[in-house]
Every structure is written in structure tokens, then in C-alpha cells.
Amino acid sequence: MGPALPGGGPVTETKRERDGEGSPMGRHAADDGQERERSQGGDHGGDHGGDGLPGSNGEHVLQELFGTRERATRFYDRQMTDRLTPEMVEFVARQEMVFVGTADARGNCDTSFRAGPPGFVRVLGDDRLIYPEYRGNGVLAGMGNIMENPHISLLFMDFFTDRVGLHVNGAATIITAYDAAARFGLEDEDRTAPGRRTDRWVAVEVEEAYIHCSKHIPLLARQDRRTAQRRRPPGEDHFGVTAAKAAGVTGQDTGRAAVARPPE
I want to staple 201 with a disulfide (CB 3.0 to 4.6 A). Which of 10, 19, 156, 180 is the partner? Predict the structure, then answer.
């Protein structure tokens, strides 16, 4: 068993490896101590809304309201799966970026961006993948959310070749670099970003995977960052927050802290 993170138990266990101990994670989890069940009547994600369909009650209500239920059901049946297909595995292995969505226990959301060489997000199996966390600004918003709420959403976007995206939703577990190396052979000098040390990894147990169609995805062209004509790289106050606070234009308490602050 690997090291533990502050405020919690070991961070290397996943639901399947706990053999039924503890609380299951993810939107598809059943009662405590049970393995999540595969959906019946298809291999799309589990029933979130209680009416035999994947997704939330909210989306089902809107489908009825806007007359899209038939189209949505067709998408669920034809495009949603609870594991990665071989084509998805190959797609992930070529990707250089991913958008990561998390939320804390109160539902406050955070979306972040991760990038690296092709294949920096590793597929460990058709039901699990893992991505590296590098040294950043020290806020650790995404992983902090995972400590409270393991639900995670990954969006892989190919703007350069396929012009298509892949959604992967599931349950996240934080894994130390030590345990990732010992258990999966994931080393700092492996296929992560050259010159960037991997502090820890986030493993994702796949619960839903489905396509993001190419209809509104722009086709972009790659450029060499060393030779491309561009403006000076933005500094840390590119959006003027520090200057605005110094001038008293914006309050010192922002975001969740401002919302949580009791009225005077």
C-alpha cells in the first residue's frame, strides 16, 4: 500500500481493487460494498435517471420538453459505451491534450487543461486510463475536488487530424508517482512531457465513453512554438487581476470564498 494523502486514506486504491470495501465511486455506483453494475440491454453507461436511460433526470426532462427524446435514445444506444473500444484506445494514444472537469462536494466546478506528447494519457485497459499531474501553481483545484468528489469528466479533442472528440466520464483516484511506477511502470522519464517531473497521477475508472461529433470543431494547424511568429508570452497578470485588486476595482474575496462568506 502506498503513501496516504492528508485528510484521507491511501490514494492508490480503485473501486475494483477494494474488493467491495468502502463506498463505491462514480455515477453508476450501486449500494456500499458492491461492484458497479453494467447496464442491462446494451453496453452504454448505467442508468442515472431511474428510467432505464443513461444521463441525468434533468436531461431527460429537457428531452421531453424539446422533443428530442427519440434522437437522444438513439445516441445512447448507438454511441455510448461503458468501456473503451479499440478505436477509442488508439485515439487516446495519439492525443496531445485533454480537458478535465471536476467538482467539489458542493458541486462547485473546475475545468482544467492538460497537455503532453502523444500518448501522455495512458490506457491501462478498456476500463481504465491514467494521466500525469505536473508541478503547477500549487492550487491543486482539480485534485482537491477529487478528494471530495471522485466524479470526473475528460474531453479529448483532435483539432488537427480527425476533427472529432471523445468524452470519457468516470471515477478518479489520485496515485502517487511512487506507486504509479511500482504498479504500472510509469516513470518520470517515460512518455510524459520532457523536462517536466510527474508529481502524481490520476487514474480514471471508465463509466461512460462517447463521441463528440465534428460538426462545430475547427480545423487547426500545428506550428513550431520556437519559430512561429507570436506575441510575447503572457505574464501571470495577463488578465489584470493583480492590478485590479491593487486598485480596489475588484474585491479581495473571489469565487467560492466570496460565495461562502456570510453576509455582513
Answer: 180
> Domains in the chain, start-ordered, CATH in brackets?
1-27+81-219 (2.30.110.10), 46-79 (no CATH)
* DSSP-based three-state secondary structure for 112: strand
Q: What are phi and psi of 184, to 5 degrees?
A: -120, 0
Determine the Cα–Cα distance for residues 110 and 98; give it in Å rounded to an integer.
14
Task: Region of 141 please: left (phi>0), alpha (psi -120 to 50) or beta.
Answer: alpha
Does position 137 have pLDDT exceeding 90, yes or no?
A: no
Sign of the CA dihedral running 19, 25, 27, 32:
positive
DSSP-assigned letters across all residues of 153-172: EEEEEETTTT-EEEEEEEEE
Closest of 215, 90, 207 to residue 164, by C-alpha: 215
Q: Which of 214, 71, 204 is nearest to 146 (CA)?
A: 204
What are the tens digits of pLDDT across the range 103-130? Answer: 999 999 999 999 888 989 999 999 999 9
Q: What value does the CA radius of gyration of the chain take, rounded to a whole number of Å? A: 20
Residue type at 248? G
Cα(44)–Cα(194) distance, integer angstroms: 37
Mean pLDDT of 187-199: 65
Angle between helices 57-66 and 69-79 in degrees, nearest 10: 130
Residue 200, amino acid = R
Whole-angstrom distance, CA of residue 35 vs CA of residue 29: 7
Report whether 173 contacts 149 (CB < 8 A).
no
DSSP 123: E
The residue written with cell numbers 489520485 in the block is 174
pLDDT tens per residue across span 36-69: 333 333 455 555 555 678 888 999 999 999 999 9
